[in-house]
Specification:
This protein has two domains: 231 residues, Oxidoreductase, molybdopterin-binding domain (Sulfite Oxidase, Chain A, domain 2, Alpha-Beta Complex); 101 residues, Immunoglobulin-like (Sandwich), CATH 2.60.40.650. Helices cover 8% and strands 40% of the residues. It has four helices and 25 strands. It is mostly beta strands. The strands form eight sheets. Strands 5, 6, 11, 12 and 13 form a five-stranded antiparallel β-sheet that branches. Strands 18-25-24-20-21 form a five-stranded mixed β-sheet, with no helix packed on it. A four-stranded antiparallel β-sheet has the order 17-19-23-22, with no helix packed on it. GO terms for molecular function: heme binding; molybdopterin cofactor binding; sulfite oxidase activity. It comes from Hyaloscypha variabilis (strain UAMH 11265 / GT02V1 / F) (Meliniomyces variabilis). This is Molybdopterin binding oxidoreductase.
């Protein structure tokens, strides 16, 4: 491990016995205070494999914690943890106050650097009855009329022990900024961003789900595989895709049109199909292989006559799960454009 990073990690990541609640004193204030959202640009701007900070969506539920770094720590005594880096898509589920039928395409692809949570849990030696890891952020306040003294989420122990789950302190090679959850945030590749607790201050091994409002009241949805209305946590990301080019409303010259975009899922995307207008035929696109948990580029060429056309992209995961045409938050993306004569 890079010795300059070692000192950084040893200061920030530390399992020591501390008075309950002592870790929260590192939060000086919130700025901005309360809910804040910055929407991503329109899909045709998401052209690069790695999404720069200024193009990545930003969602803050309770406020951004301003931290006294001299008092902030999540420590594991005696550990010199190896640095881990990975590339992963980062997707916002969307508003937990709305039915899950609107695909908001708040998506980007970024490089995270940090320490594997599994290494820290191995040192902590979880009790055999531990079923969940609770994570807590230093943010607090009110969201949608509900007041809470902390942002709290949980991970099943199986996911928490997966090698891709990180305590991250860098994004795209730069230290995490305040509004990105720095100095340290949890990163759960393949799962929605709500699970990646920002301004991380506490990890707790428990045998039940966390009791906070962001697990009990918000971020649960009806399980589409169950007919009895059973609810499930907003955890794994189902297959989704977005068309980057052509852009919506484009006017193109020539009959040969290249369609490309990004597709992603908790498991790898194995197939992306393109449909033009109301054709019953789906054209199979070329799909690049996945790097870590990154989104995957798809592309194909179609021959079109002059006039207005609509193109739809639909992704299928390696488990065989297809994007729905409509009615779900990950429904297919479509664009309309014109081919000039």
């Amino acid at each position: 491990m890079d010795p300059t990073k070692s000192e950084h990690v040893e200061h920030l990541v530390n399992f020591a016995l501390r008075p309950d609640g002592e870790e929260r004193k590192a939060c000086l204030t919130l700025d901005p205070n309360g809910f804040f959202i910055r929407h991503p640009p329109t899909p045709h701007h998401l052209a690069s494999f790695i999404t720069p900070d200024e193009q990545l969506f930003q969602t803050i539920h309770l406020g951004a914690a301003v931290i006294d770094t001299n008092r902030y720590s999540i420590t594991v005594d005696g550990l010199e943890a190896p640095t881990t880096g990975l590339t992963a898509f980062h997707e916002c589920y969307g508003s937990p106050l709305k039915p899950p039928t609107e695909n908001v395409w708040r998506i980007g692809n970024v490089e995270w650097t940090g320490v594997s949570l599994r290494i820290l849990l191995d040192i902590a030696q979880p009790h055999p009855e531990a079923r969940f890891v609770w994570s807590e952020g230093l943010d607090f306040g009110e969201f949608a009329g509900v007041t809470t003294d902390r942002y709290q989420k949980d991970l099943p122990i199986v996911k928490a022990l997966s090698p891709e789950v990180l305590l991250a302190y860098e994004m795209n090679g730069e230290p995490l900024s305040k509004n990105r959850g720095g100095p340290v945030r949890l990163i759960v590749p393949g799962w929605f961003g709500t699970n990646s607790t920002k301004w991380l201050c506490r990890l707790s091994l428990q045998n039940s789900r966390a009791p906070g409002p962001f697990t009990t009241k918000f971020y649960n949805e009806q399980d589409p595989k169950e007919s009895d209305g059973r609810m499930r946590p907003v955890w794994m990301v189902e297959p989704n895709s977005v068309i980057v080019s052509p852009c919506s409303g484009a006017q193109l010259t020539g009959s040969l049109v290249i369609v490309h975009g990004w597709a992603w899922s908790d498991d790898e995307i194995k197939l992306v199909q393109i449909r033009v207008d109301e054709s019953e035929t789906w054209v199979e696109a070329n799909v690049e292989s996945r790097q870590d948990f990154s989104w995957q580029r798809f592309s194909t060429m179609v021959t079109l006559s002059p006039g207005t056309h609509r193109v739809i992209a639909r992704a299928t995961s390696s488990a065989g799960v297809k994007q729905p045409i409509s009615g779900r938050r990950n429904h297919v993306h479509s664009i309309d454009f014109e081919v000039l004569g």
